[in-house]
Structure formats: C-alpha cells, structure tokens
Specification:
This protein is α/β, with parallel strands linked by helices and 288 residues long. It is built from eight helices and twelve strands. It has two domains: 227 residues, Rossmann fold (3-Layer(aba) Sandwich); 50 residues, no CATH class. The radius of gyration is 23 Å and the shape is elongated. This is DUF58 domain-containing protein.
Amino acid sequence: MNEQIFTSDFMNKLEKLSISVKNMATYGLAGSRKSKAKGMSVEFSDYREYVPSDDFRRIDWNAYGRFKKLYIKLFMEEKEAVFRIFIDNSKSMSFNNKNITSLRLAAAFTYITLNNLDKVLINPLISNETGIFLGQGKNSFMKHISYLENIDFNNHETSFAGLKKMNFNGSGISIIISDLFTNENIEDVIKFLAFNKQQILVLHILSEEEMNPRIDGKLKMVDSETGQEKNLVITPRLLKKYKENVKRFSNNINDICSKYGATYVNIKSTDSIEKIILEDLIGTFIMI
C-alpha cells in the first residue's frame, strides 16, 4: 500500500469524480447530496399551506400578499450518502496481488466518498468488527489508509455471514470487492443487500492465472483456504473445460447482479487502479 497508489496526478483526477447515487438519502447527517426529505437547506423546493405547528419564520409573506393565504417555503434538505465497502480478506485473495488491487480500490472509493462529504464504513468480510467508521472529510483519509494497510488476508474461507447479519438502517451504497470463491449462495447475499435498499457494486477480482492458467502435467493442487488436496493430470481438454467453467461462473454472477439491479464488473488483479476507476466504471457507477 505504500508503493505510490495515489500519485498527485491520480488524486487530482479523483477530486473531480463522484459516485452516482440512485436512491436519494432520506436519513443521516447533513451532507452534499439532495434528499427526498424536505428541510432547511438553501435550495428551494416547493410551497405548502401553513399549519399552526409550522415555524412562522418560514412563512412567505409575498405569497400571502398575492393569495391572502399563509404558505411556507420548503427546501431540499442535503443529506450524506452512506457507503459500505466490503473487502474479502480470505486467504485466496492473497494470490497474485488480488489483495493489493482490492485495497487500492477500497482506498480510491474511500477518497471519492470523503471528498464528496459522504460517510464511508469499511467492512472486512472476515472480522469481529463491522462497519468501521474512521471519520469524515478528506482529513480522515490517512486514517482510512492506515486501517486498510493493516487488514489481515491470512484468514481461511470467504464468508458473507457477518454481512447478512448487519443492520443497514436505511438506503445506501454497498461495494463488494472479492474473488467470490465461496460455497455460500451469492444470490442470497445480493438479494439481502437489495432488500435493504442498497445500491450494489460487485467488483469481481480474479488473477490472469485463475482465468487462463498455463500449467500441464501431473500436479497436486492445494486449496489455500480449506487445505484440501487433489491430484490432477492437466490436459488441454481439462484446461478448456476449466476456462468454460470460469466464464460460466462470472456470467452467472453477472446475471444475478442484473436481476437485482446491481452493477457487476469483472477485474483482473493486474489491471491498474486508473483503468478500473477512470475507464471501467466511468459512466456507470462513477460520474465526472
């Protein structure tokens, strides 16, 4: 994480970005996003007729002069959006820099979120902690970087159990960064987030070796998360079938995401953070 993930040039580019939030927040502290709730911010929204419980200071006397009725002004209240970043910190994510790519992505989303005065909660999937809040505004960015740098990727199997026990308290944005190598039902996870009014982004990280392995002969394969061993004879036919299964695996997750209105992006662990943020996600999840 110390190897120039954020050059000054890249940070300048991030300054201009925001994340497209489909569901306006109707909760939370004051922020920079327009809410469906009516409040007292500076942007005028509408009028409604005065009732005795209203603040008389909001009466529009010009409207009274024209209509001989008391009306109050309604303003569009600005609220913060709540972003939750779920980082898969299982053992398989340590393979071929998937963990480094995931941390860089989490850091980039954190910076964009803080820059837009929104709230970000970092959630390692395998942890006793949930929803780590480290402060708001760009001044807290280095705290977030320090926390990300210390996430442990030596855990074993991927688990979404903690995520499915969370209380979301209203709509928000949930970002999953994972290779999705799990025996759990991914559709149950996406469905749970959608039910909790989350705008969902799934960043599916795989290495080039996992997508297009270049191996042959007799091998003993060891599952890094379970320790299970299997002796195999790698043949061209077996490799072809493997690649077909990987493609089917990705397509299935993409279909699940489409079903629940989530955004799915397939990422190689060798992809640069600039390419992912400034090319793959621009115009869909990220806006200039």
